[in-house]
Specification:
Elements: H1 2-20, H2 28-39, H3 46-58, H4 60-70, H5 81-96, H6 104-118, H7 123-137, H8 152-157, E1 160-170, E2 173-179, E3 184-185, E4 188-190, H9 197-209, E5 215-229, E6 233-245, E7 259-266, H10 277-285
Parallel strand pairs: 1-6
Antiparallel strand pairs: 1-2, 1-4, 2-3, 2-7, 5-6
Helix pairs in contact: 1-2, 1-3, 1-5, 2-3, 3-5, 4-5, 5-6, 5-7, 6-7
């Protein structure tokens, strides 16, 4: 709606001034008030502007880390100030907002429009690329409680997205991948319609880790949670995990905006890693 677009525009302008002038966080409300008085006198949804800016500042460390991983070729300080803060607004709404109030596609489209209005010639394309990268992985950080946002009836109506992955072992070492949200997790990928879970896991994991040999030993478990597909929106992501082994020492992570690193870890080392609860449980149960 137009009022929300204006609110985001004013939030972006407040964040731009705060960022460009390196203003202390404690002064942000003064900036917001001045921006609203200048660009939105009589605006009746002022709280939305404050909420956006406050959420960005509250989650800035996490958001900036995600930008760093999702756009590794662009150090944060080299991203134009407008683009940097449009990304912060977009990621704040994507990752920490209410999906029913602001659906992911709305958050992305609004950020793109802000970039086109206030940024440079290529800003819209840049914002779309970074947010699209994050959107493809969206659902992972909130998977422990994502289903709570939907009623049983709503859950039943969501399409199912089939994926398969593996706990890949080399002796006592386990292969993990690092995602754009800063979590270490298990390699996995989509299953095609004509593949079995086992065949899909074998193909996807070998491709993702650059493995030349991999042997699937047994099925471990099956997880299901809410994720977001760029084409269809919310989906029930069903992931079947297998135990697999390889003798290959070198890992070659495929180029992916959603993943930034692949490494071997001793099983005892995983306890100190930032991991999703369900992935940690899988590793602990092996």
């Amino acid at each position: 709606m137009a009022s929300r677009h204006l609110a985001r525009s004013m939030a972006m302008q407040a964040l731009y001034e705060w960022d460009f002038n390196n203003v202390d966080d404690t002064k942000i409300d003064e900036i917001i008030t001045r921006v609203i008085d200048e660009f939105g006198p009589g605006f009746d949804d002022k709280n939305f502007v404050y909420d956006i800016v406050h959420k960005v500042l509250e989650k800035r460390k996490e958001i900036d880390a995600i930008i760093k991983h999702a756009a590794p070729e662009w150090p944060l300080t080299q991203i134009a100030t407008i683009d940097r803060n449009v990304l912060r607004i977009g990621l704040s709404e994507l990752l920490f907002g209410n999906y029913k109030d602001v659906p992911p596609k709305v958050a992305i489209n609004e950020a793109i429009e802000l970039a086109k209005t206030f940024g440079g010639e290529n800003s819209g394309k840049f914002i779309n690329g970074v947010l699209g990268t994050v959107y493809r992985e969206l659902g992972e950080p909130g998977k422990d409680d994502g289903s709570k946002k939907y009623s049983p009836e709503e859950l039943e109506k969501l399409p199912i997205e089939r994926r398969a992955g593996a706990v890949v072992m080399r002796g006592d070492n386990v292969a993990l991948v690092h995602d754009v949200f800063g979590y270490w997790t298990l390699p996995k990928g989509r299953i095609t319609l004509d593949e079995s879970d086992k065949d899909g896991a074998l193909r996807a994991v070998m491709h993702e880790l650059g493995l030349r040999d991999l042997e699937i030993e047994k099925k471990i478990c099956e997880n299901q949670y809410i994720a977001h597909d760029p084409e269809t929106g919310p989906v029930r992501r069903r992931v079947v995990y297998f135990l697999a082994r390889t003798s290959q020492e070198d890992l070659h992570l495929k180029e992916s905006g959603g993943l930034v690193e692949a490494r071997w870890f001793q099983k005892g080392e995983t306890e100190s890693l930032k991991m999703y609860d369900d992935i940690r449980k899988i590793l602990n149960d092996i």
